[in-house]
Amino acid sequence: MDTSEQYIKMCEKAEEIQKEHCLANGDFEVRLKYNRGQVEVHHHREITAHYKPDNHLWLPRQDQLQEMIEHKSPQMLAYFYNKLGCLNVSWEQLWLAFVMREKYNKFWDGKDWAQE
Question: I need a labelling partner for 116 at 20 to 30 A (CA). Which of 2, 99, 101, 107 fits?
Answer without folding.
Answer: 2
